[in-house]
Amino acid sequence: MHPTNKEIAHILRSVATAYELTGANRFRIIAYQNASDTVEHLTQEIFDIWQSGNLGRVDGIGPNISQHLDEYFKKTKGSYLEKQMTKIPATVYELMKAPGIGPKKAFKIVKELEIIHVSTVFKDVKKAAKKNKIAQLEGFGEKSQEDIVKAIDIYLNRQQKEERMLLPIAYSLSQKIIEYMKKNTYVGKIEVLGSLRRMVATIGDIDLAVVGKPYHSKDIIEHFISYPDTISVEGKGNTKATIILSGGKHADLRVIDKERFGSMLQYFTGSKAHNIKMREYALKNDYSLSEYGIKEKKKSKRERIHSFQSEEAFYTFLGLQWIPPEIREGTDEVERAQKGTIPRLVEPKDIKGDFHIHSSFNIEPSHDRGSDDFRKLTKKAEDLKYSYIAFSEHNPSQSNHKEQDIINLIKKKQEAIKQLKTSVTCFNSLEVDILPDGSLALPDAALKYLDFIIISIHSVFRMNKNDMTKRILKALSCPKVKVLGHPTGRLLSKREEIEADWTMIFTESKKRNIALAIDAWPDRLDLPDSMVRLAVDKGNLLAIDSDAHAVDQMENMLYGVSVARRGWAKKHDIINTNSLKNIQKWLNL
Ligand code: DGT
Ligand code: CA
Ligand code: CA
Ligand code: ZN
Fold first, then answer.
1. pTM for the model
2. Which atom of ligand 1 is nearest to the CA of 164?
3. What is the CATH topology of the domain spanning 261-339?
């Protein structure tokens, strides 16, 4: 059983906590906290990285921690990490999962109230609070007791949502299973179904369909349940099975013969809402739908089931245009397919550039820096056949620099970009913080050395709707702004969207020819798909940005394209499908 990124991140954070409570060196604590953050945000499994011998290459994990992880992965008895963790009761770590309950508070509560069972720690703390026992602890009080109960409720609520996987994690997991399944000679075509095929931002379980002869299906199912990462088999029939993988994720597999593959694919791709709309539509034409195909509801005794090899044939039979999986969400796609007005949605190959890449160039930024240099990033852009990219690091921190320092840094970056030898045009940009009052964290005098800027909110996410709207509108008024970065600020299952008047913001962005970002970072996917659709209907420009902080992350563009497709975006809605010439015009260069 392999430990997941979430588990490793938790262990590293726990060690940081143990250090903190035992009064260790501050840098040590920070190193473990950073390593935990890094692991949590990896788009690959840390275990896989370790297995391929590349642990040393992960930025944010130093040689020491890397060695301790190696020991841990090798399952050495009494490994360093485990030893450190056990210095503190396990209930402390568990309680700290609730937002705002820090190590010291957690430790005190657990110790004074003698809470020893990890599995019931939240229940026990809430019970104690009911009896007013926490308020009576030294350094606590009524208010902090209330806050603790609130924090626990938020955590428990969130936990349900967190059981879903982020799209890229589910996607790469499904690719691994597919690769494994192909080793069985009876396995024909294989496809993902369900939310994964529709490229939903978070995935509940993985659904797969395999083409196989009925008399081979037992063999195929046996092969599936022998998948190496299986911890248990939940259901096993002749043509389908469910396995539970380490980390508790489920995968479903169905076997079907070639002749009925299309109908099955359609049925289990969903969504449920789409299938309901389809059923209603079919009924009007006296058909009923099932996973096996389309049944004619004739008065005669002999019923006929039409089955389909391909999905296209299935939709065509019903007089419908084929509907891309990403928009099968039960909005108006069935009506549109009937009229034949489903548009050609934007595709990965339409993308000609990326405006949001964080390089390692030391602009002395306010937030995290990227880990790869201009050369590596441009090389990757060439591989992706891009025409242009923009280096958009976070703005230099304002507290540590005078205005002239900032200008000098930007000029220095501009020079460095000019020296690059590449066929890809590189723009000099920055991702500039929108401060709480709507001003930008960059002096006006610095703007003329930049080709354009992206503006984003990175702090003070909680604000009333009115003030937040004003804040963003004010920021949009700066003439160098060309992209509004990750507009809603959401982090999937971690942070809610900000509250703002999006109609006003979209109107203003449109007026100013500013693109709304679709940030492709795995736990952002921001704008969310439903808001993309609103923006598309309104005629707003959109920019699909990788927000890459490392070369490989430039490939996350794929997930941004999926969000765009789920929002019904066509090629011309997306600014970075344009030729370099059009882009230069848009940037007034
Ligand atoms: P998920 O797994 O929560 O991310 O979402 P889905 O859409 O993958 O849902 P899932 O795995 O429960 O089912 C896959 C698809 O199968 C679903 O989108 C619709 C289709 N389907 C058709 N009939 C049924 C049914 O009776 N029950 C369920 N659960 N799904 C059905
Ligand atoms: Ca599913
Ligand atoms: Ca399923
Ligand atoms: Zn950002």
1. 0.77
2. 4
3. Beta Polymerase; domain 3 (3.30.210)
